[in-house]
Design brief:
Layout: H1 27-71
Length: 79
C-alpha cells in the first residue's frame, strides 16, 4: 500500500464566495418590478410637488397681504 494521496482535480474544489445564487426572473417580471418602482417614485414626486405648490400659494398670499398694507396705511384718530 502506498501513502500517496490521490491527485487533486479542479472539479473537486468548491469555492464559497459568500454569495447565494440569485433567483432567475423573466424579462416580464423584471419589467413589472421596474414599473412598480417608477410608479412609487412618481407618487413621491407628486407628493413633493403638492407640498411645494402649497408653499408657493402661501407665499403669494403673504405677498398680496403686504401689498395691501402698504397701499392703505392705517391712521387712527381718537377724536
Amino acid at each position: 500500500m502506498s501513502n500517496e494521496e490521490p491527485p487533486l482535480h479542479l472539479s473537486d474544489l468548491q469555492i464559497d464566495d459568500g454569495e447565494k445564487e440569485k433567483p432567475v426572473r423573466s424579462a416580464a417580471v423584471e419589467q413589472d418590478v421596474r414599473e412598480e418602482a417608477l410608479r412609487a417614485e412618481l407618487a413621491g414626486v407628486q407628493q413633493i410637488n403638492s407640498v411645494i405648490q402649497g408653499v408657493v400659494s402661501s407665499l403669494e398670499k403673504a405677498k398680496e397681504n403686504m401689498e395691501v398694507s402698504f397701499e392703505f396705511p392705517i391712521s387712527v384718530s381718537w377724536g
